[in-house]
Amino acid sequence: MPKISIIIPVYNASKYIKECLDSILKQSFSDFEIICVDDDSQDNSLSVLLSYAVQDNRIKVYKQKHSRQGAARNLGLKEAAGEYIYFVDADDWLDSDALNILYQKARISGADIVLTGTKLYSEQGEYLQRDWCNYEGWSDLKNGIPSKDFFKTMAPVCSRLHKAEFIKKHNLKFVENCFYEDNSWGVLVNMLAEKISFVPNVYCYRQHKNSTTGIKDYKVFDWIKDFKYFCKFLKKYKIKSDKIRNAKLWYLRNFQYYLGELNEKNKKIFYKKICSVLKNMKLTKIDFSEEIENKDGLYKFFCYLKQKDFYNRMCTCFYFLEVPVYCIYKDKHNNRRDDYLFGFIPVYSHYKETK
Fold first, then answer.
1. How far apart are CA 160 and CA 270, in angstroms?
2. What tens digit of pLDDT does each residue of 233-290 get?
3. pLDDT for 290
4. How far apart are CA 318 and CA 95, in angstroms?
5. Which of 144, 143, 132, 117 is nearest to 199 (CA)?
6. What angle do CA 21, 25, 30 make, to 5 degrees?
7. Domains plus CATH for the chain?
8. CA 308 → CA 13, 16, 65, 262, 313, distances in Å?
9. What is the pTM of this model?
10. What is the spatial distance between Cα 119 and Cα 126, in angstroms, rounded to a whole number?
């Protein structure tokens, strides 16, 4: 059994995959297997993978119908035999001692996950003088991630070395046929992990216009699909955690960000999709504590969404009943009227464009 199973989803990555594989094969740590899952690439990615597999028997290649990264990672998890699981994207690469640093930390600490920061590079491979996240100097956690650090530890999936036993214990899988598929994975791992360790930045992330994090178009709608998967997972496995609130606030903050980044047409569509899942948020004013960055702005955004959701019901025969009930509810919970015109019309000029 290899110590680490490295899972790489591959889709039209022939431009980068050689650099990615070379960085792994040149590691100072050698007890690993590489599971490459080709997601029906239309370039010569599969040929490159097969040529590498012939040269090194630690490389295993699988092919699937185009189902995106979530399905590719799930197939990789199914085939993985390692004591630990590590995900690498095909357009990124690792520092030469990355696996050794991650494994030694995991072995000594017994951690469910080991978090590392990500060094940010341009599409041409030039270091951008900043890191996506950095855990230099962080102390190990033995009782889970505290609420105050939940947002800070929401790192990309490739920033975590996972104990395979931890993944199996909690039946963790990725949502399939979905962009942003690692969001629900990340919040669930953050909620469920009990022992967490940290190491310096060893993952090299390539930022380019075609990467998922750079997308600001209709693909953002899949944030809603991913959130629904997260809610269904909680219900299916009857998960109880005081961090569910943090996870939902994290989703809400990203809804707010991407809503502001979309063009007018997609903004209206995304707004309606957000309102369709508001009932699953189940957040109250007390949930917007001082632990949350920009809590006032996030709370106003949440109130705005609830207000607009209310407007979708104004055309029903219950309109005249709902208005006074809604106003009483707002008075009771907000204890203020200055954010509202006539008690129920929002005046947040920042969000007028989403009407």
1. 30
2. 999 999 999 899 999 999 999 999 999 999 999 999 999 999 999 999 999 888 987 6
3. 65
4. 62
5. 117
6. 140
7. 4-213 (3.90.550.10), 219-354 (no CATH)
8. 42, 45, 40, 18, 9
9. 0.85
10. 11
Residue matched to tokens 């491979």: 125
Using a pLDDT cut of 90, give the percent of the chain over it. 72
The residue whose two tokens read 């357009």 is: 91
Q: And the tokens for 104?
A: 């030694």
| Cα 181 from Cα 304, distance rounded (Å) | 27
Cα angle: 151, vertex 154, 157; to 5 degrees: 175
Distance, CA of 316 to chain centre: 37
Q: What is the pLDDT of residue 318?
A: 42
**pLDDT by residue (tens digit) across 40-99?**
999 999 999 999 999 999 999 999 999 999 999 999 999 999 999 999 999 999 999 999
